[in-house]
Amino acid sequence: METRIRTKFKLTYAQLSAITFFTIILIGAGLLSLPIASRSGEFTPFINSLFTATSAVCVTGLVVYDTYSYFSVFGQSVILMLIQIGGLGFMIIATMFLLMLRKKIGVKERDFLRESVNSIHIGGIVRLAKHILLGTFLLEGMGAIILSIKFSSEMGIASGILNGIFHSISAFCNAGFDLMGRYEQYSSLTRYSGDTAVNLTIMALIVIGGIGFLVWEDVYKNKLAFKKYQLHSKIVLYTTFLLILCSAIIFYIIEKNNLLADMNMKERVLSSLFQAITPRTAGFNTIDTASLLESSKLFTMFLMIIGGSSGSTAGGIKTTTFVITILTVISSVRNSADLNIFGRRLENGVLKRAYSIVTIYILGALLAMLSISFIQPELMLSDIGFEVLSAIGTVGMSTGITRQLVGMSKFIIVVLMFCGRIGSLAVLMAVAENKNNVLVKNPVEKIIIG
Asked: What is the pLDDT of residues 155-168, one digit of tens each?
């Protein structure tokens, strides 16, 4: 159906993706506005419903209401459904239904599916989609079982299972929504800062969900034979490992005399690891984000910008974009014409796309910060910057100002979350893509740079 619509109206993938996600968000906002969605039985203001639906579909986690205290079981179920759709992507969900109905998946559908998961090759794309679906439900199921066992001892069996399922899906999709408001509103997972099982399970789900579907397939095919991995997988796994390790050490050093001061060694290590992983688009927190030192907040914002990996449930500029940017700087300093990594040379078009993404990302964030600081001058610029980067990176962490935002500021955050999930470059392409490419090129003339 999507392909017929695309062909009839000549929509590009970027345009159809934006339209579909926007439609899903509107439907979700409508459902969350209904009295049945709130515990009080009252209508929810549409801007707040829109904010929540966008945060769920864009797997961000920023909230204007505590999910457990404000929303009913129906509302929580809608949020969970939106998280799952947003995490997998609408095309993967559509493919699942086509497979269940035994419908034929043609070449156009396969090409569309290839674009949706950022795959390079169209061959084997349906098999990849099946593996994505199977892997997602398997990993979420395993996480749900572990968390359900833990939560059931505190909440009872029924509530424990529901919480296990909710938090497993939310963690795997890097959404950051939680139901811990039963203990303390907006507390996220701070109650479990020293719980090994909860920390390791949530962290594992976040990392696996954030490395990308293509990396899954590579690991599945080649097991532990790292040399056989595609270059994309090597960059993602190597960069992810280094970012987690180095970030954990940095957080430990910065916060050891602040938030980690009253913790034992196990809690310090778990909290440092969690804080190293969650800013790269997960949104959960086991320590009070608002109480972080300014240096920790700044480093957290840096991790928000990097985000996860391409073709995953994560946001940010992506690890590959970050690596290419660093390699370009190194190449320029060394006066080298090529970008080389793991014995391979990268094509020049990749550099152009990487710098386009970084530029649009930074300019969008700066414009949003300027707008919100003008609308609400009473808010601290550091808190606004944290909120903006959290939104555009689909992270979901906050210093606590989300609930203080006025209508226009909320709308700006909604736009940022939407662009962060679809991709800022993809959104601009959907609006301004030039279909009339001219073959004639202008004369070349040099300019001075630097």
From this structure: 999 999 999 999 99
